[in-house]
Specification:
10 helices; 3 domains; alpha/beta; Rossmann fold
């Protein structure tokens, strides 16, 4: 198996089927190997499901006011879209959610752009214009965002703010862990989280067919994650949930869909249990997604800018 990979490719998994039959019929007591081969196949199929990328893509962002950024992070194409103000200003970084794209953010980015701020949106791997990645992880996205930030002319930037929606919030919160560093961390301004995901445990519980298999899925997930990211050696399951995953140390605005039909209220409740500088709003008119414009949310964003930036 190649290094930094948790799963085999499909051909390798399929090859186990004839190998199992061959062992069963050609080797003495070969039938004993059949359950072993079956267990390996099931294990690999589950790992592929855990680390698979998005099934659907949202439209690619295209607007002449935002310049396309294309970089290679360890050989992988990373894409961002940036609008520079003609003067030095704060920068706001937008991270979209699962099966979304930077294109979904244009109206919200315009709020900040009209307030004379630089705005940057980044397509996560397998989303928008970004190519499919082998074994999708949030840690890969964090690496890409850091790589884009290090490529910018930081002399044009005063403070840096982050805006994460859903899974994008999980990425933004994770960047607060001490393992992540850069010029951007010394200039951190505020964090905005919209209907955020901030823990992986509820997602895994949703994926598990029964609660009996949940501990095994968690064990396999952590081992697989460490194979993909050996720099995370020593990681435990609780390290993938807030506060161990990351804990904001800056003023944080939470814009939560009151009736979140995708994530429910559990992530919001976990966030509210943390001892951080937080201003939270439950917004009845706000859905989890499909929320390009929302007057209640957008007014709260404007107030946050006027009061905090």
């Amino acid at each position: 198996m190649p290094s930094r990979k948790a799963t085999w490719n499909g051909y390798a998994i399929l090859a186990l089927i004839p190998a199992s039959f061959a062992c069963s019929f050609l080797m003495p007591y070969g039938w004993i190997s059949a359950p072993i081969f079956l267990a390996i196949i099931i294990h690999q199929l589950i790992l592929r499901e855990i680390f698979k990328g998005p099934k659907y893509r949202s439209p690619v962002f295209s607007d002449p006011e935002w310049e396309l950024i294309n970089l290679k992070n360890k050989g992988f194409d990373v894409y961002g879209f940036i609008n520079w103000q003609p003067h030095d200003a704060d920068l706001v970084v937008f991270v979209h959610g699962w099966q979304s794209s930077s294109e979904k953010y244009v109206e919200r980015m315009s709020i900040f752009k009209d307030k004379k701020m630089h705005t940057l949106a980044i397509d996560m791997r397998g989303h928008g214009i970004a190519p499919v990645t082998s074994e999708w992880t949030a840690a890969k996205v964090i690496s890409d965002i850091k790589y884009v930030l290090e490529s910018l002319d930081e002399s044009r930037i005063h403070k840096i703010h982050f805006y994460g929606h859903s899974l994008g919030a999980f990425v933004c919160v994770g960047m607060h862990h001490p393992r992540h560093s850069g010029w951007w961390k010394d200039r951190y301004g505020t964090l905005i989280l919209e209907s955020p995901m901030i823990a992986y445990s509820p997602i895994m519980e949703e994926m598990a067919p029964t609660r009996f298999i949940l501990p095994l899925l968690k064990k396999w997930s952590v081992k697989g994650f460490i194979r993909i990211h050996p720099e995370f050696r020593g990681l435990k399951w609780e390290d993938i949930d807030i506060p161990n995953w990351g804990l904001p140390s800056c003023p944080t605005l939470v814009l939560q869909a009151s009736n979140d039909t995708r994530l429910g209220r559990i992530h919001y409740d976990l966030l509210m249990d943390q001892s951080i500088d937080i201003e939270a709003h439950l917004i009845k008119s706000l859905p989890h997604s499909g929320n390009r414009t929302n007057s209640e949310r957008d007014n709260l964003i404007t107030e946050w800018i006027d009061n905090k930036f």
